[in-house]
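Worked example 3. Consider a protein that binds adenosine-5'-triphosphate.
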Amino acid sequence: MDYAIVVTLEMIRAVAWLVLLSSGLAIIFGMMRVINFAHGEFLMLGGYTVVVTTNAGVNEWFAILVLAPLVVGLFGVLVERLVIRQLYGRLLDSLLATWGLSMLMIGGVTMIFGNTVQGVATPFGSLRIGGYQIPGYNFVLILFAALILTAVWVVLKFTRAGLIARATMQNPAMAEALGVRTSWVYMATFGIGSAVTGLAGGLLAPLTGVVPTMGASLVGQSFITVITGGAAVITGTLSSATLLGTISQGTTFWAGPVYGDAALLVAALVLLRLLPQGITGRIFKRSL
Amino acid sequence: MPLLEVKGLSAAYGLVPALHRVDFHADPGEVVGILGHNGMGKTTLMRAIMGFVKVTGGEILFDGQSILPASVNARARAGIGLVPQGREIFANLSVEENLQVGIATTGVDIAATVAEVLELFPRLKRLLDRRGGALSGGEQQLLSLARCLCRKPRLMLLDEPTEGIQPSINDEIAETLKVLTARGGITIVLVEQNLDFIAGLAGRVYAISNGVLDRQIPREQLTDPRAVSEFMGFVT
Amino acid sequence: QTETIKVGGLHDLTGALDMIGIPMNQVFQLAIKEINEAGGLLGRQVEGVIYDPQSNMSLYSQYATQMALRDRVAVVMGGITSASRETIRPIFHRYETLYFYNTQYEGGVCDRNEVTLGTTPAQTVARIIPYAMNLYGKKVYTVAADYNYGHITSAWVKRYVEENGGEVVATEFFPLDVAQFGSTISQIQAAKPDFVCSAMVGSSHLGFYRQWAAAGMKDQIPMISTVLGAGGNDQIMLTPAEGNGILSSFGYFEAVDNPVNKAFLERVKAEYPTNTPVVSEISECTYEGMMIWADAVREAGSIDRDAVRAVIAQGKTYDLPAGQVTIDPQTQHAIRDVYIAELTDQNFVIREAYPQSPPLDTQMVCDLIADPDANVHHEISL
Amino acid sequence: MTEVQTPDPGYRILRTRGLTMRFGGVTAVDNVDFDLRDGELRCLLGPNGAGKSTFFKCLTGQLVPTGGQVLFKERPITGMNTHEIVNQGIGIKTQVPNVFDGVSVYENVRLSARRKHTAPMAREVAEQTIEKCGITHLIRREVGQLAHGQRQLVELAMVLAASPELILLDEPAAGMTGDERDRLAQLVLTAARSAAVIVVEHDMAFIRQIAKFVTVFNRGAIFREAMIDDIMRDRAVQEIYLGKQADAIA
Amino acid sequence: MEKTVARDPGFWIMLAIGLAVMVLAPALLDMFMVLQITQYVVLSVFALSLGYIWGFGGILCFGQAAFFGLGGYTFAVAAISMGDTTVPLILSFLLPAAFGVVLGYFMFYGKLTDVYLGVVTMVVALIFWKLANHTAGPGYSIAGVRLGGFNGIPSIPTINIPGQPDAWLDPSQLFRFFMAVLVAVYIALRLLIASDFGRVSIGIRENETRAALLGYDIRRHKVIVFAIGSGIAGLSGAMWASYQAFIDPNAFSMEMSAKALVWVMAGGVGTLVGPIIGVIGLQWLTLQLGTMELLNSYVVLGAIMMVLVLALPRGLVPTVKVLALTGWTLWHSGRPGTKAAPGKAVGDD
Ligand SMILES: Nc1ncnc2c1ncn2[C@@H]1O[C@H](COP(=O)(O)OP(=O)(O)OP(=O)(O)O)[C@@H](O)[C@H]1O
Ligand SMILES: Nc1ncnc2c1ncn2[C@@H]1O[C@H](COP(=O)(O)OP(=O)(O)OP(=O)(O)O)[C@@H](O)[C@H]1O
Ligand SMILES: [Mg+2]
Ligand SMILES: [Mg+2]
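Given these inputs, the predicted complex is written out as structure tokens:
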């Protein structure tokens, strides 16, 4: 019984993990059709912001909830202005440029902070469930995954910003002709996506610690989650994270992490074969 | 003072010129028609006024002010609206959302504006929830027109607005546009192949040929296709 | 103006393993500097030829070839993972360039062209397992990185646990990029072992220690590791709350108490006052490698590979920071002092020392005296 | 297959039986029984959104009908893949031009001709068809850079170059001026001598030049089928479709 | 009217350069340089495989390394267990090509397009990568050859003369052989692209609907294109394994796939020379950066990639072509816009 609860909680946590990893990317890719290959490094930057500022004496929660999104969000705006801006509508070029950016960031962070930065402690202690103990921080992850999704939903649903962003993405020239300042839209979307990514990176830092190369293993997972989800940012991310998260975590419990990872990939493969436009390409089509 | 004044406008695609020293103007409330064969530069002219095509020479004055330095969206916000050739519907937005895009951030009463415009295009009313991309060709064309009108532009650039629209609705559109211009609120530059349509609306009509717009076609000639062809130059 | 003697340094300065490669390279350069300050070798200055293989095996192969054929270096120090060693070892063998591999590894290399200074499982695992079983109990749960090193090490763990009358309740392997360990931690809790033995490697796996601590397990089930502290920096990435109490075993820790080591660490500090490397076995062995090679060159009076090799194969004993080190002529591996240490506030405190431990595992499969032309990496079957 | 040759009144190059296409709640084509004789030129009229283009898409397999059957040369083709259907001898000009943007006009047409002919023949056919469509001066231009009307002609040339037995033209005259339209009408009439043709068009001036027997769609179903003059006079058709145009003709 | 391969001077120039390098390089350069360019040659074959399916088939594959690795592992296992390398080399083409057919069937008959296709290929490569990494345990061996997990398979034989397992090619012979393979692949692809099959591929790339409406079976066509690319990638993987004498899961890595993308992009999509130039330029650069340990090589490489994308968005070869063409036009017509008479129809040429 206890074990079942622990397993279930782990599964929910795995889903939350995927949601956190991929929300920012989903905003950027889903809205702008820009594959941000440096997404993993944006997460890394969020993590570094938390670790470095916390070690310098800043309150850990302040660092995670305010500084990480702020720093990464601003960095995102800068990147958009300097690089991404030139590359809209050119999916691959943006992929390549952001890939270059990813290397630049890895190298840059290594040069500034070296390879080792002491981690920060995981807040919240642990929680006892029968004979098991689980980190209380897990609940923080789950909470924030839910919060991020809700916030994005509210923005897209109840403000016109979402509409404008989607129109801009589909046909920027026509949106311009309707008076939309597309360059602002792009900048804001990219900035918000980056900020969400920064927040996620900040949240992950106490759990995994930070190293300059940490992004590499994260970007694949987030990318696959986003694409499997399909066009809709929220339902897409949520449905694919739920599906992939439970499948992979279930398999991990049952057969070990290698098979868990492999199961995630195979599940994504099968899903895309069945639903060539991702989950929300076919189901929940009209959702956000 | 004319609302739109195009002076000596030249434009090119790369090194290939497409417009040569085009001069014309449109006074407030006026409908100016432009006729021309395929590939003569009508669309290029419209896109140049809207700001999509790089201008290599000349001047465009809107309301007496040069708009050449302004971006496309700035021109749109200044009151220029384009109904482009090819409709350019936001395929994955619903019809209603398509109508809202242009006014989403302007602070006007969105619902009221949309409702007002829909009165002009009753056909669209029952399609509001449909995906833009799923509409039939004619329906898209109507949507494109309606979308432009939602912004209440002072100058409308219509690039073959009747293409793909059934005859009876064409008549209705002509009526609508007539009413709108008669009220004086709207000025129209109309590129059109449908002679009846242009004859019913336009005050002055020009012919464009190979990027050169230098002949005005007298109104009374418009009912005679042969005569019009002569003005436009026969197809080679 | 005599020509310099070139020595090659092939360590990952960027890429996944740079946190290990950078300190190795720093010590490598320090060794060259010391040799030159002492008048160089054979009246010539020594010059380091350093390439960065970027943790990429193709570049390893590339630069190894370049060092051997183009730069014609006298000796090469380098390689970290077994994969990188097995990439470059055949190249140096083919192009007759003496090669020092200075990393702790799974044992079994048998190649007269290679001198291997790092510890093998027979030297470390064989010591720490009985030590830990004595302290904590007989039920062991092993978690290991999913590659050769992890597999072989966990096989050794199992063998030594069983030899000492214990039981390995489970062994789990993790790909190097896995960073989430929630399910494993629950499973360990379910298995209730007396202690956990970790052969986890690399930065993603540090998350294991962190999540272990976050789950509040650190005070409930003790942990030992056959690899934490190998690279040098990993222990300072863990906060004291996460790392304190983990036992580890190597042929060198900074805490080794002898005058040679004290002086050595002071020179390291003097040379790198700002980004002082944490010296671990792997870096110290790199230093050893340079010193042993330099000594052999002096004695041979030449940098010729065969002459130098002949001297090294004599089985001399050297006084080095790690203590006394003897080259075993049978395997060209090091017979050395081995230590067990406990991580305490980001430093290893030595708990136990085992002087002059031989690489028994490799000795089982390799005899270069009998077969001088050997050129293989044996998988030591248990 | 011998009766194909005889002008058997029973033989129809195209038949649909109960053809239906639903998109969710929208029924775009509703239980249509449509017959076309070999060599016939048929005009298909109908209000916007009546289902004409959808009907074409069902015929060519771009959409798989939700109900009913399509018989081409008396053989069922429902549910087949587009290329299989097309290879039986159907060519279509779509409402929004579908052309190969990145390559030249010539290459576009040649690729179509090559489907039917040997390489040297294809070259010749392509050049002739381009000539026939009056776009020889554009032959080396990249199609993506052409004006709208020019692209329409390129697509038409592609359809003709494959010499299909059944030609479907969805609004071919859209965006054409008077004399261009006249020439297009001639082209269509010529083509109709060697193939069955269905033309969808809203341009009544064009329709008047080519139409004989006309089918009118409304709300997905066949509304009227009659000779053009009768259609033009039909009150109900005027009501739903023609508006004042009818007076102009009458 | 049509450009045939035989009438294209560019083709003959490329061929001449290829053959000249093949004959002369080993004689003129030292062994290290020969080994060095051998590497470029092998990777060029790999880049060509992607350059073909992407540039001329419109198939964007984010996981080209899946086939590269598959070819490499196939060759490694077969060559080690057979002793002779001839059959393994052929297998390393056939097996990945067959796998390409299967995967292509799965994708194209499932109507996958665009990024979704890219991601599926990427996922497949990742699965291979994961699985290959997972084969460290002693249980994983094929035909007696241990797969070795993360460490990979060492001691892979060099190419030998067919039927004579002991007659290994020395470095300069190996170079010549690989160069011959590259030239052969280049010629084959040029001919293929110029053939009707190749033109249809381009048509499909431009507009699938129209291609289908002309009666071309686009799914089957794409499967074939994809399989050819897969086979070539597999072959290059085998060459790579034999050149390096080892193969490890990195051959399947996302980095390897991405590198192929970068080479093709940098050189220019839609050309065959471009990918080759991309390989030479960027590999050389990576190498140089590793040699200077001054700056963190990531920083420099990353910056260069970004600059490349921003400055040469279409890739080197097409950009040079356009520049040359523009220069030529300018030189012939004086200043732009002034000379072309207004009366002359735009596009009347
Ligand atoms: N993107 C482009 N690049 C190069 N040339 C172009 C481009 N777009 C149009 N042209 C050329 O410019 C000329 C004018 O085109 P434009 O689209 O303005 O014609 P149009 O008068 O609108 O024709 P239509 O009646 O067919 O719509 C044509 O010859 C066309 O081929
Ligand atoms: N994919 C779809 N999903 C939902 N509705 C659709 C879809 N495709 C078409 N429709 C609807 O079906 C109806 C018929 O469309 P179709 O394009 O066949 O009309 P049409 O007769 O060609 O009109 P037009 O003359 O305007 O081109 C339209 O109302 C359209 O909105
Ligand atoms: Mg036009
Ligand atoms: Mg239609």
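Take a moment to read the result before moving on. Residues 19 and 183 of chain E are 8 Å apart (CA to CA). Chain E has two domains: 3-313, 314-349.
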